[in-house]
Amino acid sequence: MVNEMAIVALFALSLDLVLGYAGIVSLGHAAFLGFGAYSAALFAKHIMPDPLVGLCFAMVTTSCLGALCALTILRGSDLTRLMVTLGMALILLELANKLDWLTGGSDGLQGVLMGPLLGRFEFDLMGQTAATYSLTILFTSFFFVRHWVHSPLGATVKAVRDNRLRAMAIGINVNARLAVVYVAAACLAGAAGALMAQTTGFASLDVFALDRSADVMLMLVIGGVGWLYGGVLGAVAFKLMHDVIAGITPQYWTFWIGLFLVVLVLVGRERLLKPWTWWRS
């Protein structure tokens, strides 16, 4: 459970970087999650089973994919970007399905065996090594992203988000800033996908599904957009609600989460947190 929370929190952190700080609407962010998962799984199966080397490989390949996709999101409106990002995820989903000789197709890529972490720590059935590994990557990524968004470069990115024309007028290279943020977010999402494949030993077409992109969007709605802690807290809250509600009503857990989101939007996050704030004081 802790391992899953850390992975989805890293995935939510990557989307918050794109949506909350750059203002780029994306409905196909699962494309980078899935590409990272398959990159790490194929690397471990055919080249080297070392987890850290496979993680770096997945981050590099996903960054290259993000740089390619960045060319498509620099033009057009929010609706255009929404459709382009969704289309990219659907293209990769179909490619992974058709290239069954490489990806396993609808059966998924099975038999991914990982070597010991740092040459000492084996991935056990209890998931202790996996949880520690994922949490370490999450906290390390969070530290660097937090430092970056509060740097002068991060300030220019937020200026582009707030007023693109004014940012261009004062000499900010808008396209370069958006491309850098998009590539960084793709790298983080690829890292989350690599962690998912490495800790489970499996990669399937499900990582490209629209549900992945929709779920991470819901996490940001719960935790708050444009606030790095919001992505992490929203991911933890979503996974806890999913686990608890699905244990009570396995068939209708989506109804209760949907009801909670409706109440959250109508009432407001601040009002819902007021009783908890009073209790603390």
List the helices and strands and how they pair.
Elements (H helix, E strand, L loop, with lengths): L1 H20 L8 H17 L4 H23 L4 H21 L1 H4 L24 H22 L2 H11 L1 H6 L4 H27 L9 H14 L4 H21 L4 H15 L1 H12 L1
The largest β sheet comes out as:
none
Please trace the helix and strand order, writing H or E for each element.
HHHHHHHHHHHHH
Mean pLDDT: 81
Report the uncertain regions.
Answer: 276-281
Distance between the termini: 31 Å
Number of strands: 0
Number of domains: 1
Described by the principal axes of the CA atoms, the overall outline is: globular
Radius of gyration, rounded? 19 Å
**Approximately what portion of the residues adopt beta-strand conformation?**
under 5%
Quick synopsis:
The chain has 281 residues and is mainly alpha-helical. It is 76% helix and 0% strand. The protein has one domain (2-210).
Provide an overview of this structure.
The chain has helices at residues 2-21, 30-46, 51-73, 78-98, 100-103, 128-149, 152-162, 164-169, 174-200, 210-223, 228-248, 253-267, 269-280. Residues 276-281 have low confidence and may be disordered. Helices cover 76% and strands 0% of the residues. The chain has one domain (2-210). The protein has 13 helices and no strands. With 281 residues, the protein is mostly helical.
